[in-house]
Amino acid sequence: MKPYPYLEKINNAHVYDVAMKSPLEHAPGLSKRLNNTIFLKREDLQPVFSFKLRGAYNKIIQLDETSRTAGVITASAGNHAQGVALSAQRLNINSVIVMPKTTPQIKVKSVKSYGADVVLHGNTYDDAYAHAKKLASQNGMTYVHPYDDPDVIAGQGTVAKEILDQHAGPIDAIFVPVGGGGLIAGVATYVKQMRPETKIIGVEPADAACLYEAMKAGERVTLESVGIFADGVAVRQIGENTFPICQQYVDDVILVGTDEICAAIKDIFDDTRAITEPAGALAIAALKKYVSQNNISNQNLVAINSGANMNFDRLRYVSERAELGENRETLLAVTIPESPGSFQTFCHAIGQRNITEFNYRYSDHDKAHVFAGIQLKPTATEKDDLIKRLHKKNYRVLDLSDNEMAKSHIRYMVGGHASQVENEHVYRFIFPERPGALLRFLTHMSERWNISMFHYRNHGAAYGRILVGVQVPDEEMKEFESFLVKLEYPFWEETNNPAYQVFLG
Q1: Exactly one of 9, 52, 59, 101 is catalytic; which is it?
Q2: Residues contacting 255, CB < 8 A, separation 6+
Q3: What is the three-class DSSP state of 454?
Q4: Between residues 445 and 69, which one has the greater pLDDT?
Q5: Which residue segments constitute the domains of the chain, with CATH numbers given?
Q6: What is the Cα–Cα distance from 228 to 192, expressed in whole angstroms?
Q7: pTM, two decimal places
Q8: For residue 468, what is the enclosing H or E element?
Q9: Is 52 among the catalytic positions?
């Protein structure tokens, strides 16, 4: 296949009127721990705390005078919005940013601070995108796509040019976070034409794997839904322009989970004292996984820290999950005897390990259920050894470390069983963080169905996580399932979840 003609476009890209040449920093702590030389490309240090302004500026600066007079428009709830707004401000061009109504106010205020006009429309990115395209057509404005545009791709490709300029020696692999593919397309097409021996490895959250699924299918696919934690890469379909480049130049795509991302945020903080957003830590999460799974050592590995637009409120959630993601903590449901001294006996059973969390509720005269967080020693078999130890002492043990409902809700709800509640069905929802979201749920639900349990937590994101118990007779389940579909909120049934059965069912 012929190389994509981006080399010249990247070399001639206009980005440094707004962007800085971000440093390529050695990460001493990670390097020592992983027995490799790890470098962090610090795009989190850009003026808008993200690489996104590179592509936005490179697109806008090339507009002719007529297009500049008409102005630019885009749809975005995050880093691209700020990149377009700042670029337009520097070039004295009018800009309009269409954002979903669910966008946190901190992001809305940030975009407005760069002089952009903000239009809040719809509840999702797709709603905002459709409205932005409509406004662009009506007003003759130029739509600046966040990733699926050759000039945007070329602008993002300057990240790769800097990496190769900053490290003249061999680079074994570069890890690149993937949303719509603008960054990885720019990086891959440049690196593979300059240093074809360097591997380009894309990284996606396991619940937003649009490139991974497309590579597997051999064509672009549209995901039914995407996870919201790493919102900077929550894209349902890889770009039309970016996908062919990825097919030709990307060596592999690695998927990482939420807990692994949280652990990576902590890793970056430990080495730099900087806090990246979840999407910004993807590359380190995958780098660690790649090293572990392939027994890699003594290589030069680069991770692109793509952004640092983190809401302070989310740090609580990150802190909770980081130790789980590093396998330094486990969450267990343990059944212990309901007798004096049983807690002390349990502590002896777990040995010289710290208890990080302990939730207890009387169950009956014979037994009690304990939700315990236990710190693990840094060995590969530590958790299995602990569980085997407890089994030998005749404890019933349920590992909840990978149970999303247990981690997000049950750990805060250990209150005992409701023996008189009949026909209870349990669902986990994601509600948009906007006025009226809960009211919409309640008003659309039949008054015949009683809410028997409710737990809500917000993590500083555009969406809140809710656990609901609803009493629905068997003969009305079809009607209830129809209600769930019409609601159009993502949901998962958790009635058979063992954590619910042990602590609340």
Answers
A1: 52
A2: 203, 204, 205, 206, 209, 212
A3: strand
A4: 69
A5: 7-46+150-323 (3.40.50.1100), 52-143 (3.40.50.1100), 327-402 (3.30.70.260), 415-503 (3.30.70.260)
A6: 32
A7: 0.85
A8: strand 463-471
A9: yes
